[in-house]
Amino acid sequence: MTAAHRLSARSDVGRRREHNEDTFLCNAALGLYIVADGMGGHAAGEVAAAIASQRVATEVERHRSMLDALARQDPGVRPDDVKLMLANAVRAANGEVWAAAQANTARRGMGTTLTAMVVVGRRCFLAHVGDSRAYLVRGAEVRLLTEDHSVVNELRRRGKLTQEALAKVAHKNAITRAVGVFENVEVDTFHILAAPGDRFVLCSDGLHRYLETDDALRPLLEGVTEEAATQRLIDYANERGGADNITAVVVTLPDEDTRQTVVAELTRSYATLSALPFFRHLEPREILVLQAAAKVRDVEPGIEVVREGEPGEAMFLIVQGRCVVKKGEMEIARLGPGEHFGEMALVERAPRSATVVAEDDTRLLEIARADFFRVLRESSDTAVKLLWNIVSVLAARLRETSSQLGEAREQLVADDLTAQLFDEYPTVVGREVRENRDTMPAMPRGGTFPR
């Protein structure tokens, strides 16, 4: 299923630590890749990282049949099933680390970060706790896929990450979530769509603390094999101080003849989603999660995608082909690749205001309202951003509609006054209008002729 993945993994103690508490685990047959950064001292961190990684691998192996079924597109297995399995695997790992810590007083409080990735066909699943990271490198684009559970990132999220604030933080690298420290743990799980040739980087904070921007990864990965890339990453961190253990896993998906087409479609749909007012202010990883929630729908020419008057259940993005938008029998618009329609269906099940018909063989991305709300439920941060964006868009549309109604009302008043003048002075006014129609000034919105 995943034997063609090209990969390399390295871990280094760095230049300031006495021993290495980082762990990585790679199982290409499962498509499973893990980076864990332990904590606790007296080798307890190393123990926590090893226990957690091995337990996750054991749980994923136990559900290999589920992964195989998803890979062959068995309708009985959904991506949500794999996400739930992966979240449960990390929770099981949390319980095992917690139990080991309670059984040995010298290891009380030990824990670990954990970032696990499972690649199944063209879907990439992630489970994440702590401040290790996963990145996607696709062409010239670098996307951070995970969100750090750290004090610094919490300050950033709250809009309080100033130099003054940072100077007052005693433990800038402290994490707010870890595997095994408490009896229960909250796990971030999600999945994105992968493309042939995609390269993924999993790493501990011993590396990413030296990356000023996500794009700083790109020159370290360009034009080199996975083995050379991991060595470059380790050297890069050590040259800048090597303040912590450094671990990097680089995985590249196999190229296929369809690579250019798949990448182009994913890039186009990503750009379209990013440009929509509903989705502004979302992080790249959040756009990728929304993109993965969409379903591909191929439509033949002449087929109605939506029909005027019918309840709306989904919005659509055009990946390729063209569509015609009609109001009754009147054509009001033509839409092509990168354009969208039906976004209000994400908010309510209201009747469609127009009919949309495929003009060519057309490929669409369909985001159903049910899937949209599932994304909202899975991430409270994403939900807040999306709901705020929706409220802002609807408020703007309400203002625009109110303005248009005001203009229409003024025009109606003007028309009524004109009609009144004709009624009261039909002969004189009518003759003047007829004789001077081409030279008379336009009636202002006030509704009276200029004196």
Tell me the layout of helices and strands.
Elements: E1 6-12, E2 22-27, E3 32-39, H1 44-62, H2 64-71, H3 79-102, E4 111-112, E5 114-120, E6 123-129, E7 133-138, E8 141-144, H4 151-157, H5 163-168, E9 188-193, E10 199-203, H6 205-208, H7 218-221, H8 226-239, E11 246-252, H9 259-275, H10 284-293, E12 295-299, E13 304-306, E14 314-320, E15 323-327, E16 330-335, E17 340-341, E18 355-358, E19 362-368, H11 369-378, H12 380-424, H13 426-435
Antiparallel strand pairs: 1-11, 2-3, 3-4, 3-5, 5-6, 6-9, 7-8, 7-10, 10-11, 12-19, 13-18, 14-17, 14-19, 15-16, 15-18
Helix pairs in contact: 1-3, 9-10, 11-12, 12-13
Unreliable stretches: 440-451
* Structure class: alpha+beta
Please tally the β strands and state the result.
19
Radius of gyration over C-alpha positions, nearest whole angstrom: 29 Å
Percentage of β-strand residues: 15-25%
The number of domains: 2
> What's the mean pLDDT score?
87
The CATH homologous superfamily name of the largest domain equals: PPM-type phosphatase domain
CATH class assignment of the largest domain: Alpha Beta
Distance N to C terminus:
84 Å
Helix segment tally: 13
Share of helix among residues? 25-40%
Instruction: Give the CATH architecture of the largest domain.
Output: 4-Layer Sandwich
What is the fold named in CATH at topology level of the largest domain?
Answer: Phosphatase 2c, domain 1
How many strands, what sense, and barrel or not for the largest sheet? Answer: 6 strands, antiparallel
Shape: elongated
